[in-house]
Amino acid sequence: MIPINTLTAIQSRRSIPNFKNEDVQRNILQAIFTYGSYAPTHYMKEPWRIKLYEKKGTRKLVEAIIASYQHLGMLKSADADPAAQKMTDSMRRFLLKIPHHAVIYFPRETDPARYDEAYASVCTFIQNAQLAAWEYGVGMLWTNPPYMYDQAFYTDIGLDYKTDKIVAVMQIGYPAKIPLFKGRTPIADKMTFITEE
């Protein structure tokens, strides 16, 4: 691990869609999410929870994803026709090749203000983890797929839609290729300075 400047890490980090066929060691994954846990957290609640799928355990998540896409009508049942079978098999192979998947969630809050606080805290936790991962040479892809809103998917992976809220499903591994920088809009275009009453 080569230490890098925090500002450089923020600027150089990329979302990684393709990974090498190589597992990230468990101690590195734990270190990455430990750095994530230094995120701001209201009342020190540390609301983030992680289900990390790897090796043979990934299959359970992948089958739940496929079942959800079918349940939502976004993927035809593989029994329906050969084209649906081919698409399902392709999706399954792609997802199983990803070294690690992390479902990041938190216990739902009933109070709207507390819910927003928890959600924001978990998002900060995820970004901290992404920056820490980058320093370890590990890439992540923060995804927000439709199945995150499917109650059946929650049940299939052992969560309760009424009491848990999934914020992201992270794909994790060593980058096969690092995408080019896509640029950002100058921040001055998005800032308004209020100088008078």
UniProtKB/TrEMBL annotation:
InterPro entries reported in the protein's UniProt record: NAD(P)H_nitroreductase, Nitroreductase, Nitroreductase-like, YdjA-like
UniProt entry tagged with the keyword Transport: no
Span of domain Nitroreductase: 10-174
Keywords: Flavoprotein, FMN, NAD, NADP, Oxidoreductase
Xref: CDD domains: YdjA-like
Cofactor entry: FMN
Domain of life: Bacteria
Family: Belongs to the nitroreductase family.
Protein's name in the database: Nitroreductase
